[in-house]
Design a protein that fits this description.
Largest sheet: 6 strands, antiparallel
CATH topology of the largest domain: Methylamine Dehydrogenase, Chain H
CATH superfamily of the largest domain: YVTN repeat-like/Quinoprotein amine dehydrogenase
CATH class of the largest domain: Mainly Beta
Helix content: 10-25%
Length: 886
């Protein structure tokens, strides 16, 4: 049944067929009685005998008739003519939103205007108890005057008596397929997909999908198949808008993401509120406004004052000065500009193992890790401001890195790779990541490459997914790889390769590719390698920063080497250094060796000094209390030393060029077990306390392992071992028989720092199964029921030698003592907080004496006033050429 131009239908003269589809034919017609053009919508002939389609047709007419709003298409009449159901709707000149989107994404201001109108139209419908249930670009019409009109209320749900007798449909629909709830694939809310109760907030979700598509040109949840699309709607978050465009105000992105919350209760609770929120967005760009400097009060901290004044001056100078190698047309030497940024009040720069910082690609902002109240988090600061702000959702974060547009920060936390927007409004988990991640990099093509020190490099999409390996040459040799950095082409990247995972003598920088083929060695003995546009590599050597031209086609360095003197903090083969695309340099100033060994009483008062030389770290008291085994970190070696406590005389115990750590005494005091990464392979070794003879390898594995405790009966050694699926587990290494290790505590959570009780029947350890670290005790060798010792967070449990107390460090680093009874059955008393400590990060920072009256601490020197980040401008104009090594 088709009408041609000039045909009559009731009181209407057909002008032309406009559209035809499964739910109707639409004609432009002339109302001969009123002399106006109308849209004449007829139920198709095939549907005349279909009660369901007739009910939908009538529902649409009733829904529109119940509404009267400038943003909703109007209906003039409805009825039957010669057995044909028809509706007469106002005629509109213009085009649908779908037709407008065919030209690509819309400007943010256009989206704000259209989105607010759509929301107002929905609000009017919701006020009348009408839920549209099919909001999509095809059902949004934009008149030639720019007025939005909502179309097609055929799926509408009306909460009134207007449709008495009608029931909710679950039958077929052309857009969804048989047996699925009504709606359009990709635009349905989670409630529609799951078939649960739908109200007006479902339309808010669908409008969020439309807004997302208007801004990006992509559907938020579109997947290759219908099943995957429905699953994504139910379970997955939308990708950040910044992946597709950088020209969207942060506040608008926040509005869209709130519309797309899975839970209806987390969305805007009315379309009217959504319309108001859209109308209030006026910022024309996503870039965060620079913070203005607060008034400098008379009592302001001296360091903040210096940083504020110098920082503001430096930023102004930065606008005028460009590094010489970025502009060959500027022959004169620009002045060197250097200023310091100190950590915010009540915080210190985090150190795990080196200071962590990253400057944004445009050089305008800095993100860095601090420790506050015993917890680590990321802070962000504009270089044009004197104020830094915490970045929400970055608790326990490590290794921050920037997105290419500078609007997001990637980082690692909780054995996951995560990302967060610079205002903290949007965040998401991308994939599982190693417990000991060693840096990540984000390409302009939307790929992230990240490093696991022992497992090589992996890549994942910046919107999340399953990571895949990028295997570098030499992986079979178990070399450690770390700190990748993409080059501008998005295919090549730099990374470091260490012959030993923690060697202090530096690493070898390589040029790699995403396909893992043709990796080329560039330079060895460096602590960092960064690309500086247009064609240079910046690397950190023992004496400072060096710069050399790189031939990317041939994969090799060439030309003279320039050097710039800078005292940069470095540790375990890595320098805390970052450089922007514009050449602005930021680095953490080298820290003074910040640990000494002291005795303190139960009130925390110092009663004696064991060692004041620098670099003392992990400590373990001998069974008789006469000696202490200590890791000592110095520039050329990380070895284990022993100190005679009676005479205060230190002696070097290990002499490996690799990192030796985690000393554990045998119960008879004749041997020390320790961890080491020798020949690139992590292992547990033991050596006679005299140091005579070679160290004996007890166990090796190609993952992080460290011994923690030796059983009193000399039969077992407990050690930690990382696991990609369960973080850190506690294993048992038998020292008799076949020496085959087996798990003691292996759960989806992280268990660590396990220690035998003096009778060998119990093990105290730390676990994050509650969502934060807590101390627990379980029976050995069969764990059985566990007893939780700490209640507000804790770690580093240690037994008193007589077994009458168990000590641990609270989250805010207070040393706490808990009475313990090991007779008959395990009994726990009330905890007592002894004193605040200043022990550094690490597993073995304190040890109780044999009488329980004092503690040996590796105390961190309070250097918070000295710890700082240095920002340098125009440094490349002040390099000096050095002779190339032959």
């Amino acid at each position: 049944m088709h009408f041609t131009a000039g045909s009559r239908f009731g009181g209407y003269e057909v002008i032309a067929l406009v559209a035809i589809g499964g739910m109707g034919e639409v004609y432009r017609a002339r109302d001969t009685r009123l002399g106006r053009d109308v849209a004449l919508k007829l139920l198709p002939e095939i549907a005349i005998g279909d009660p369901e389609r007739q009910a939908r047709f009538e529902r649409e007419a009733r829904a529109i008739a119940a509404l009267s709003h400038p943003n909703i298409v109007g209906i003039h009449s409805f009825g039957l003519e010669n057995g044909i159901a028809y509706a007469v709707i106002e005629w509109l000149e213009g085009r649908t939103l779908r037709q407008e989107l065919a030209q690509g994404p819309l400007p943010a201001q256009r989206v704000l205007d259209l989105g607010a109108q759509i929301a107002l139209g929905l609000a009017a419908a919701h006020d009348k108890g009408v839920t549209h249930r099919d909001v999509k670009p095809e059902n949004v019409f934009i008149t030639s005057d720019g007025v939005v009109k909502l179309l097609d209320f055929g799926l509408a749900r009306i909460a009134s008596d207007a449709l008495a007798g009608f029931t909710e449909e679950t039958g077929a629909h052309p857009m969804t397929g048989a047996g699925m709830v009504l709606g359009t694939l990709g635009y349905m809310s989670p409630e529609q997909v799951s078939g649960s109760g739908v109200d007006h907030r479902s339309d808010v979700f669908s409008l969020g999908v439309v807004l997302f598509e208007m801004l990006t040109g992509h559907l938020a949840f579109r997947r290759p198949s219908a099943v995957e699309t429905l699953s994504a709607t139910l379970t997955e978050g939308p990708p950040p808008i910044a992946i597709f465009t950088s020209d969207v105000p942060v506040s608008l992105e926040r509005i869209v993401m709130r519309c797309l919350e899975k839970s209806a209760g987390e969305r805007f609770q009315s379309a009217r509120d959504l319309a108001f929120a859209l109308s209030q967005v006026t910022t024309p760009t996503r870039v965060l406004p620079a913070e203005t400097a607060p008034e400098i009060q008379a009592g302001i901290n001296h360091w903040w004052f210096v940083a504020a004044v110098t920082g503001i001056v430096a930023v102004w100078l930065a606008l005028a000065f460009v590094p010489r190698y970025l502009s060959a047309a500027t022959p004169r030497q620009e002045p060197l500009v250097t200023f310091a940024i100190v950590p915010p009040p009540d915080t210190t720069l985090a150190n795990v193992p080196s200071r962590m910082l990253a400057i944004s690609p445009d050089g305008s902002r800095l993100v860095f890790a601090v420790t506050k109240g015993g917890r680590r988090e990321l802070w962000i600061r504009s270089l044009a401001s004197t104020k830094a702000e915490p970045l929400p959702g970055t608790e326990d974060a490590t290794e921050p890195f920037w997105s290419p547009d500078g609007q997001h920060v990637g980082f690692f936390a909780d054995s996951k790779l995560k990302r967060v927007s610079v205002d903290g409004a949007t965040s998401m988990t991308l994939c599982d990541a190693p417990l000991e991640a060693r840096g990540g990099t984000w390409s302009s093509e939307g790929q992230i490459v990240f490093a696991d020190g022992y497992r090589g490099l992996s890549r994942v999409a910046a919107i999340g997914g399953v990571p895949t390996r990028v295997i570098p040459d030499g992986d079979a040799k178990h070399q450690s790889v770390s700190w990748p950095q993409f080059l501008p082409d998005g295919r090549h990247f730099l990374y470091l390769r260490h012959e030993s995972a923690g060697i202090e003598m530096g690493a070898t920088a390589y040029l790699g590719t995403l396909d893992g083929a043709g990796d080329r060695e560039l330079v060895s003995g460096v602590f960092n390698a960064l690309f500086v546009a247009p064609d240079r590599i910046l690397f950190t050597a023992a004496t400072g920063i060096r710069l050399q031209r790189v031939d990317l086609e041939r994969g090799q360095l060439s030309g003279e080497i320039d050097e710039f003197s800078a005292d940069i903090d470095r540790h375990l083969g890595h320098a805390a250094l970052s450089v922007s695309r514009s050449g602005t340099l930021a680095y953490a100033a080298a820290r003074a060796r910040d640990h000494r060994l002291v005795w303190v009483d139960r009130n925390g008062h110092e009663t004696g000094v064991v060692a004041t030389d620098d670099g003392w770290r992990d400590i373990a008291l001998s069974p008789d209390g006469s000696r202490v085994a200590v890791q000592r970190i110095v520039p050329e070696a990380n070895d284990i030393w022993t100190i005679d406590l009676a005479r205060g005389v230190p002696s070097r115990f290990t002499f490996s060029p690799d990192v030796d750590d985690d000393p554990v005494w045998s119960p008879d005091g004749r041997a020390i077990a320790f961890s080491s990464v020798r020949d690139g392979i992590p292992g547990i070794y033991q050596q006679h306390v005299s140091g005579v003879g070679d160290a004996e390898l007890l166990f090796t594995n190609h993952t992080y392992i460290r011994p923690t405790t030796w059983s009193p009966d000399d039969r077992f050694l407990l050690f930690e071992q990382t696991n990609p699926t369960s973080a850190s587990d506690v294993w048992v290494l038998p020292l008799q028989g076949d020496h085959t290790p087996h798990p003691y505590l292996a759960t989806p959570y992280s268990e660590s720092d396990a220690h035998f009780s003096p009778d060998g029947k119990w093990v105290a350890y730390t676990s994050d199964e509650s969502g934060r670290p807590e101390v627990y005790v379980q029976h050995f060798p069969d764990p059985g029921d566990k007893v939780q010792i700490s209640t507000l967070g804790g770690g580093s449990p240690r037994w008193s030698p007589d077994g009458h107390e168990l000590y641990f460090l609270s989250i805010n680093r207070q040393l706490t003592a808990v009475p313990i009874s090991l007779t008959n059955r395990f009994h726990v008393g009330l905890p007592t907080r002894l004193f605040d400590t200043s022990v550094g990060l690490g597993a073995n920072r304190y040890a109780p004496s044999h009488d329980g009256k004092r503690f040996l601490l590796s105390v961190g020197i309070d250097d918070s006033s000295a710890a700082q980040i240095v920002v340098v401008l125009n440094w490349a104009d002040h390099v000096t050429s050095i002779e190339r090594p032959r």
